[in-house]
Specification:
4-stranded antiparallel beta sheet, alpha/beta, 16 strands, 7-stranded parallel beta sheet, about 525 residues, Isoleucyl-tRNA Synthetase, Domain 1, binds 5'-O-[(L-methionyl)-sulphamoyl]adenosine
Length: about 525
């Protein structure tokens, strides 16, 4: 439990379409949000971490028809797969919302009602270009730019005419521009913000928010032929999960203070909806805006765009093979350090995965923890030695050095720089390794007169490894748990900065030998 009055931190993932099964993209976004949520909890924040599934829309209806099942049955089946992701990868979400949940549906209708009353939603006729695969409308300019082909599926865009309800997005041009001007951090990273600013300059047009050519969706209040456009339905999940559309509800009572979100993490392909349409909808409803929309880039696989036909598709089965061979922490560590959190895509390759695991987790962290605890076992009877404070050689001012790395690691995570945060922790471990090599306690231990010095060295090694592990706990919770157990460290305290203060390890503590990361054969996971 976070302390009373702990600062709140709300983090969301996109809600995932149930017309397909989960793959690396979904697992990635969810895992990095999980890492961030865990880290914030370790800092003592009161975290609300939301994820879920997006279950309405034409795509789901069509997939269900093709399979000969009802859309709800298809949604139930694939939603269960997404829920399985949460338990398979030990995701600590606080809520898993489904857009077919009646509590969501009634709130969405209440919001649309309010928008109609305020005049922000009106009935009009639409003519334009529609990407059926993405369920997204394009303006003439955008359609021309993509040569009338879907940038995602490559299929031709459809010319569409429809009587629809519209959201008066055009009325929010000035306010959205001011939002961006006043909050340079509203969309991150910078490259993505610039993309939005470029498109904003073209001018905002009203967007249709209802459809009439299928039925699998939430009905527009008092308009039986219309269902609410799936994107509008989906965006509202972020606030219906907190009960904002129903102030009488239990959800509202216990959760409304978690809005606005601290950060809404998405993939770059759904930026426009989150960076422009979403804040405009919230403005129209007089609700606070999220502090930041963070759009990460994409995983490609073995150097190419993932595709089932190329045989490089990384679905749940493949990810499971990695987890079975290398462990859950290995996958999380790879996501955190090598993932496309910035503006460029990352390549998921078996070779790179194996190398990262072996270099960082086996040879560095695992080796250092095992070396340190083995020496404490051998030379100090398995008990944490005392540090007399005398110079032990090696030229490191440990308290100062670890203090600086801890500050860097915490500050990097605050910017969602997962690799930077992890890197600062690993720098501590690398320093310990060099320190052991420089001071050679295993040689000094042969001379009984050097016992104090050996104790000083080993205390410093163990304490530094402990601090690094505290910083890495959100990324590699299983290994951190193992080390806590073997080194009798007790559970994490909920005040990470304090836990990382030099001197937290008490002399006399029982330190058992640990083997955190086993060495794995190169071809542990078969290709494609
Ligand atoms: N349902 C919409 C989102 C509505 S949010 C109000 C949707 N769903 S989706 O199932 O297609 O999931 C898209 C998300 O999955 C991306 O935004 C991203 O988070 C993740 N990824 C999908 N493919 C990906 C990669 N190849 N690489 C990394 N993440 C990507 O869009």
């Amino acid at each position: 439990m976070p302390p009373m009055n702990a600062p709140r931190h709300t983090i969301t993932t996109p809600i995932y379409y149930v017309n397909d099964r989960p793959h690396i993209g979904h697992v990635y976004t969810t895992t990095i949000c999980d890492i961030w949520s865990r880290f914030e909890r370790l800092l003592g924040k009161d975290v609300f971490f939301l994820t879920g599934t997006d279950e309405h829309g034409q795509k789901v209806e069509q997939s269900a028809v093709a399979r000969g099942v009802s859309p709800q049955a298809l949604a139930d089946e694939n939603c269960a797969e997404f829920r399985r992701v949460m338990s398979l990868f030990d995701i600590t979400n606080d809520e898993f919302i489904r857009t077919t949940d009646p509590r969501h549906e009634s709130q969405v209708q209440a919001f649309v009602d309010r928008l109609m009353d305020s005049g922000d939603v009106y009935l009009g006729t639409f003519e334009g270009w529609y990407d059926a695969g993405q369920e997204e409308y394009y303006t003439e300019t955008k359609a021309r730019e993509v040569e009338y082909l879907s940038p995602i599926s490559g299929k031709p865009l459809d010319r569409a005419t429809e009587e629809n309800y519209y959201f008066r997005l055009s009325a929010y041009q000035d306010r959205v521009e001011s939002l961006f001007a006043a909050n340079p951090e509203f969309v991150r990273p910078e490259a993505r913000r610039n993309e939005v600013l470029g498109r904003l300059r073209e001018g905002l047009q009203d967007v249709p928010i209802s459809r009439t050519n299928f039925t699998w969706g939430i009905g527009v209040p008092d308009a039986p032929d219309h269902v609410i456009y799936v994107w509008i339905d989906a965006l509202f999940n972020y606030i219906t999960a907190l009960g904002l559309g129903d102030p009488e509800s239990a959800w509202f009572q216990s959760r409304h203070e978690y809005w606005p979100a601290t950060v809404q993490v998405i993939g770059k392909e759904i930026l426009w909806f989150h960076a422009v349409i979403w804040p405009a909808l919230l403005m129209a409803l007089d609700l606070p805006l999220p502090k930041c929309v963070y759009a990460h880039s994409f995983w490609i696989s073995e150097g190419q765009k993932m595709s089932k036909s190329l045989g490089n598709f990384i679905g749940l089965e493949q990810l499971n093979q990695y987890v079975e061979a290398y462990g859950q922490d290995a996958l999380r560590y790879f996501f955190a350090t090598q993932g496309p959190v910035g503006a460029t895509d990352s390549d998921f390759s078996r070779r790179q995965f194996h190398e990262t695991y072996t270099t960082d987790l086996v040879n560095t962290l695992g080796n250092c923890a095992s070396r340190t605890s083995a020496m404490i076992g051998k030379y100090c009877e398995g008990q944490c030695p005392t540090d007399s404070g005398a110079c032990a050689g090696g030229g490191v001012e440990w308290s100062q050095f670890t203090g600086a790395q801890v500050a860097t690691s915490i500050e990097a995570m605050d910017r969602f720089d997962l690799a930077g945060s992890t890197g600062a922790a690993m720098a501590i471990v690398r320093r310990v390794d060099a320190f052991i090599n420089d001071t050679a306690p295993f040689k000094l231990a042969k001379d009984p007169e050097q016992a104090e010095r050996v104790g000083n060295i080993l205390y410093r090694c163990a304490e530094a490894v402990r601090i690094a592990t505290c910083l890495l706990e959100a990324v590699i919770p299983q290994a951190a748990g193992q080390l806590r157990e073997a080194w009798s460290l007790g559970p994490a305290s909920g005040d990470l900065a304090d836990a990382c203060r030099w001197g937290g390890l008490h002399p006399g503590t029982s330190i058992k030998k640990v083997a955190l990361f086993p060495r794995i054969e190169t071809d542990a996971v078969p290709a494609g």
